[in-house]
Amino acid sequence: MRKERQAVINEQNGIFPAVCPLDCPDTCGLLLHKKEGKIVKVTGNPDHPITKGAICNKVRNMTERIYDEKRLKYPLRRTGLKGEGEFERITWGEAISEITGRFKAISQEYGAEAILPYSFYGNMGILGVDGMDRRFFNALGASQLEQTICNAAGTTGWKYTMGANRGTVPEETEHADVIIVWGGNIISTNMHQVVLAEKARKAGAKVIVIDVHRNRTAQWADWFVPLYPGTDAALALGMMNVLFEKSLVDEAFLQQYTVGHEELREHVKDYTPERVSLITGVSVEDIVKLAETYGQAKAGYIHIGNGLQHHDNGGMNVRAVACLPALTGAWAKLGGGASRSNGGYASLNSDALERPDLRENPDARSINMNQIGAALHDEEQPIKGMFVYCSNPLVVAPDAKRVEQGFAREDLFTVVHDLFMTDTAKYADIVLPATSNFENTDLYSSPWHQYVHIQEPVIAPLGEAKSNVELFSLLGQAMGFDEAAFRETELSMIEGALDYPDNPYLNGVTLNKLKEQRFVKLDMSDYEQLLDHLPTPSGKIELYSKVMLEAGLSPLPVYAPLHEGYDGEHPAGREDKYPLMFLSPPNHNFLNSTFANVEKHQKMEKQPMLHIHLRDAEQRGIEEGDQVVVYNDRGTYQLTAKVGEAMLPGTVISQGLWWEGAGGRQRANMLTPDRLSDMGRGATFFSTTVQVIKQEV
Ligand SMILES: Nc1nc2c(c(=O)[nH]1)N[C@H]1C(S)=C(S)[C@@H](COP(=O)(O)OP(=O)(O)OC[C@H]3O[C@@H](n4cnc5c(=O)[nH]c(N)nc54)[C@H](O)[C@@H]3O)O[C@H]1N2
Ligand SMILES: Nc1nc2c(c(=O)[nH]1)N[C@H]1C(S)=C(S)[C@@H](COP(=O)(O)OP(=O)(O)OC[C@H]3O[C@@H](n4cnc5c(=O)[nH]c(N)nc54)[C@H](O)[C@@H]3O)O[C@H]1N2
Ligand code: SF4
Ligand SMILES: [Mo]
């Protein structure tokens, strides 16, 4: 491993192929331009069949982050109070021995389940986040983390219907003639889907955006349909009502490929356009027009975003939308169908990667990452040790004040491994410097397209930074775990991950090919028969799901109002002390909390803003540019008002996960609830109500 790494790194100048490591569906092919041992420019790789040389502004400016002077270069030990950010430099040897010493002591006194890893996908490299790290925590016997902060609700709702995370592949979508972008801001979050949709549009397709916010994508679309937050299931059911009423359904398709269409046909009679209009805020005419436009399409494609599923009823929202292409038979048309995540095509050998066999306590307790604040307050089964990597929970997890209070506990031993001194890292006892992805070897697949990538180091680690793989391998050995698994090289781990006969899509994807070509397409020969053997209990699209019934859910899609939030059918709520719904989706120039601390990206994004409707602003004496305070019982968030009509009255929106250490004033998640969604125990960030007042100066 060492030799190969050296060979690449020593090549001082030139252009090196790479892959974008960020938690973004596009997984772009990149080119790194190197001069005198430094990356001086990042461009798109024109040879990449899907991303074709185009990349976003965030990553075009990636060198600003890689070489940011604020990057952590050495291990640190806290000297000040938790949260103060005062640390001293220590050696790796000291860091490792302190961590292993403390973990051993905690295990002895409280059991290893008192230690909790907290990670997400700050770097999508699979070896570092679903590989060596898992081996370490498995062998340690630590508590397990339910990683449900992103799309768990939607995944579950989709899987009840379609069986697996496999939908329409991107290349096909340029053949669609009606494209519905439902709860996704793809201009900012999936830019190459926009390129494909634009191609379709040139050939006559219509693009419709269904969203609570006239975001960048809605501004680009042919038709923007605004609705009240969390009412998507009602809208989808209203469309189904019209599709059945007007005989715009494909009866032959329903017969052959679905179960439960007769039950659904009866059931949606309750969702008349009149009732659905009241719930959603979409006019009766628009509901009918939407259903007709979709029902009459030759090949209707629905892109299901993340927005509609970050709600109390998020699973059902996605479940309901996922039923639509089955009604019209769009699945059978080139370009038609739907996709939410296509990650299921590239599923890897997770047993080989994560080695669950190293765990002696497979029933170890599991903690939901959305409820980390509450878990850190649990006195009966206390968490005594935390290991945070590839995540920034103080900024990204809901109910941030409780999270912060939890991390502030003096009796909690916390390690954070990151590239930067994040708001979370300031609460750590030990902070460890992480390499950027361009400094390591790792394997990347895309949740959207069907190419698998390898990344090998293009520059040497900055300072004393170590990759996740190197770190957890070191820690494992220092703990005395003598299994060979802790000495395996990255390349050997990649071979293990790809050796997975259970997934025929991986046929022919090998380490050798990856090393030669940098990215390799999955074997998609099974794709044509996708609908013939869906991994649902019936093998068909389940419009009625017995499994849901067994899980205590409605077997047919239904609309349920949010716990905290209003729709037209529940107008009394509007008298409440928190009369506005607050949504905090991603912004254009950050990637979750990443880049929020990079000056260049901050400048591109300007400042944290609150979009507020003219009517709601007038009622509060708020004008454009005013400083406002958004608050509820959980916390406060200070923002600058942007007054307009970008959403229905009653909804306010602030994009982007700003953080305090990066110049933000408080954080969006100070306001968000840690309730779990109806399915998949997912996050409910967007099911929040608030009040807004003008800040007196
Ligand atoms: N630039 C950029 N790109 C990113 C990210 C980023 O932070 N910045 N994050 C990445 C990650 S991890 C993810 S998961 C994806 C997420 O990307 P998307 O799938 O685009 O999802 P979101 O941006 O969370 O939300 C999309 C839209 O849903 C809307 N929305 C909120 N509630 C509702 C609702 O109830 N109904 C409907 N119909 N719409 C609603 C929001 O207003 C927003 O416009 O993006 C990835 N790409
Ligand atoms: N209010 C609100 N909250 C949200 C969302 C929202 O829309 N609104 N979106 C949610 C969603 S969809 C998601 S996916 C989560 C994302 O939550 P996270 O995954 O936690 O957020 P990121 O900012 O992507 O990454 C976290 C950290 O990983 C670090 N990192 C990068 N590479 C490496 C590495 O190789 N090793 C180590 N050790 N660290 C590394 C980065 O520097 C960064 O600090 O946030 C969720 N939170
Ligand atoms: S963040 Fe997304 S669009 Fe930007 S380079 Fe990475 S994969 Fe491509
Ligand atoms: Mo996400």
TrEMBL record:
Obligatory cofactor(s): Mo-bis(molybdopterin guanine dinucleotide)
GO terms, molecular function: iron-sulfur cluster binding; metal ion binding; molybdopterin cofactor binding; oxidoreductase activity
Lineage top rank: taxon: Bacteria
4Fe-4S Mo/W bis-MGD-type domain location: 13-70
PROSITE patterns named in the record: 4FE4S_MOW_BIS_MGD, MOLYBDOPTERIN_PROK_2
Pfam families registered for this protein in UniProt: Molybdop_Fe4S4, Molybdopterin, Molydop_binding
Protein name: Molybdopterin oxidoreductase family protein
Species of provenance: Paenibacillus urinalis
